[in-house]
Design brief:
The protein is built from one helix and eight strands; from the N terminus they run H-E-E-E-E-E-E-E-E. The strands form two sheets. Strands 1-4-5-6-7-8 form a six-stranded antiparallel sheet, with helices on one face. The protein is mainly β. The relative contact order is 0.19. The longest helix has 17 residues. Strand 6 and strand 7 form a beta hairpin.
Length: 192
């Protein structure tokens, strides 16, 4: 089956979102509003997580019993101790209809080298870079429509086969594109 091109998805996405956006276009703007780079046009967060021993992050790359293929020296060690990540959202246009459009990125890096039941380390060897990027549009009633592409890039020795315990690189952390709707409630995202 052929995968639809990114251009076709973008056209479908923006075409269906346009009607919903038009419902909320009539607003009075203050004379001091900026057309480009308004206040708060970049927002986001960063975070760093540590998984304690016996509770490592399983990237679904190695079999859960990978340790039986070599014990503490098993080749398949894709169980992360550290995760760094964050979220960045850019909304550079402050007026016109395009003020509702934003770009976003959500990167995560997984680091470690552990074999459950056999070898628990505090290694920070890079394993995988997981990122989601996309474009979204704000709709009325705290709704957003988003087009997101997700991809995982394996790093270092994890780019190759990791022995008998390896499940392969095409698991749920693969490459995919999705169209989603997001609804904010309870004051989670302050609307201006």
């Amino acid at each position: 089956m052929k995968r639809p091109s990114g251009i076709l998805l973008a056209v479908l996405y923006l075409g269906t979102a346009g009607a919903a956006v038009c419902q909320d276009l009539v607003q009075l703007e203050s004379p001091s509003s900026h057309k480009f780079f308004p206040k708060g046009w970049v927002r986001g967060y960063t975070e760093f997580s540590v998984a304690p021993p016996h509770n490592e992050v399983d990237l679904n790359r190695c079999k859960s019993y990978a340790g039986i293929y070599g014990g503490a020296q098993a080749q398949c060690t894709a169980f992360a101790r550290f995760v760094g990540g964050g979220y960045v959202e850019l909304q550079p246009l402050g007026s016109t209809m395009l003020r509702h459009v934003f770009l976003f990125s959500e990167p995560h890096i997984f680091m470690g080298s552990n074999v459950p039941q056999y070898n628990y380390t505090f290694s920070a060897a890079p394993m995988a870079f997981d990122r989601s990027v996309g474009v979204g549009i704000e709709l009325p009633k705290n709704l957003e429509l988003r087009l997101t592409q997700h991809r995982v890039q394996w790093m270092g020795r994890y780019q190759d086969n990791l022995g008998k315990g390896d499940l392969g690189k095409n698991g749920p952390l693969g490459l995919y594109t999705s169209v989603s709707a997001r609804w904010y409630f309870g004051g989670y995202k302050t609307r201006q």
